[in-house]
Amino acid sequence: METKNTTLAPIETGERITALDIMRGFVLCGILLMNINGFGLAHAYGDPTIAGGATGWNLYTWITTNMFFEGTMRGLFSLLFGVGMFILLDRMDKRHAGIKGADIYFRRLTWLLLFGVLHAYLLIWAGEILFNYALMGFLVYSFRKLTPKTLVIIAVVLFSIGAFWNFMEYRGKVEMLQKVEQATAMKAEGKELDKDQKGALKEWEEVLEDRSPENINSFNESMRKGYFDVVAFNAGEVFKWKTYGPYRYDVWDILSMMLLGIALFKWNILNGEKTIRFYLTMVVIGYAIGLTVNYFETINIINKNFSYISFYETNTTYDLGRVSVAMGHIGMIMLFSKLPFLHWLKYAISCIGKMALTNYLTHSFICMIVFTGVGFGMFGRLQRYELLYVVFGIWIFQLIISPIWLKYFHYGPAEWLWRRLSYLQKPPFRKNGDVIVD
After folding, report:
1. Angle between helices 18-40 and 72-94 (to 10 degrees)
2. Is 252 exposed, middle or buried (0-12, 13-18, 19+ CB in 10 A)?
3. Is residue 430 part of a domain?
């Protein structure tokens, strides 16, 4: 008779892949580098002219993050999540878990879905990703046994659909602005506008109102209120992205990277087992393509003075740039993991990766305290480059705390709870001489 803890239990320490933990730690830090703009500024995640400043150090900060981190960190986070789900399913399949394995997998994702909802609403972060990962994770199950080549083909198809949608959206915005120009001229001449022109004018007025200093100031003040007021204010934005986002972006943005991640894992690229030459080639080719694309996108936006349409125009090549840079990042991280020195840093970063869920939620908790009226009410008060001080502070905190925590505990608190709910077992938490399960 099968014992309770052997076949269907969390992964043991010896089975963990250190290179993946290091990569997960790096990516989690990079995620905060991008998310901090949403945590601390209104509507300025991509466009620095709306809030936070677009000159001097603020401009340099935007250029750097746009070139190296925009889309790549989220993409790598998605990639790693897909790999984690595949490893879980592969272990279950090899142990002939059958329907019990599927039960654990889907229960795990269902709880993650709930964590995402609570995270978005109660920790006041509309940009949270757990909810979206759970939804896409439900789809990953059916792809787990496909060959790497097939997974890459499917991922490329999904990327292509997303790029086509971005292109059509860009075309639509161009037409909208043309109609606005026509409508403005006709109104000046006292002529009657048709339905399409009225619709375009209304859409453009809403865009201008959303970006107006008055609206940004109102947004800032709302985020500096007390907890329940901020939760209520944030709820509309959460609902919008959790209903509109999955079909507009997630299938082409998240699921595609999950499948690509599984393919790379099956090819033994993500476990650090390839040669230094192989990873150097990834770095050179990935950065050569990706940074070239990102450079022309960035220059195009700057040359057009951060115009509304310039962002939609560069979205047409967005995936080509971000995925290529992400491949370069993978090569660089794998090279770092193979270095015969800096063991203390690799260990600290891997500890952040082992506690990825806890540390990710901690980002939101700390930023809620720093930026909203729950704590210091700094929302909208810092320039874009000054937000980096908060980022660096959190990085240092987690680099110190994560290794200390894992010295005494097997899991981060969120990881322990997730496993407890997923396996319907109570895994050991404090290290007190029992068998280490990680």
Report:
1. 140
2. buried
3. no
Half-sphere exposure of residue 162: CA atoms within 13 angstroms, side-chain side:
26
Structural domain contains residue 436: no
Residue 274 lies in a domain: yes
Q: Which residue in the block uniquely carries the two structure tokens 């905060």?
A: 32
Vertex 163 angle, CA 160 and 167, to 5°: 135
Check if the beta carbon of residue 110 is closer than 8 Å to that of residue 103: no
Beta-carbon count within 10 A of 270 CB: 23
DSSP state, 54? S
Question: What is the reported pLDDT for 98?
Answer: 85
pLDDT tens-digit readout, 344-381: 999 999 999 999 999 999 999 999 999 999 999 999 99
Contacts for 246-250: CB closer than 8 Å, 24+ residues apart: 246/132, 246/135, 246/136, 248/165, 249/162, 250/132, 250/135, 250/136
Q: Are 71 and 110 in contact (CB under 8 A)?
A: no
Residue 122 lies in a domain: yes
**Structure pTM?**
0.92
Print the domain residue range for 238. Answer: 13-423
- The Cα 104–Cα 100 span in angstroms is 6
Q: How far is CA 351 from CA 243, 355, 410, 412, in A?
A: 34, 6, 11, 10
Q: Torsion over CA of 414, 415, 420 and 425, rounded to 10 degrees? A: -150
Q: CA-to-CA distance for 101 and 84, rounded, in angstroms? A: 14
Nearest to 301 by CA among 42, 40, 73, 65: 65
The angle at the Cα of 31, spanning 26 to 35, to the nearest 5 degrees, equals 155
Q: What is the DSSP letter of 98?
A: T
Residue range 98-109, pLDDT digits in tens = 889 999 999 999
Count up the domains in the chain and report the number.
1
Alpha-carbon distance of 114 to 31, in angstroms, equals 21
Half-sphere exposure of 94 (CA within 13 A, CB side): 7
**Digit-coded pLDDT (tens) for 265-298:** 999 999 989 999 999 999 999 999 999 999 999 9
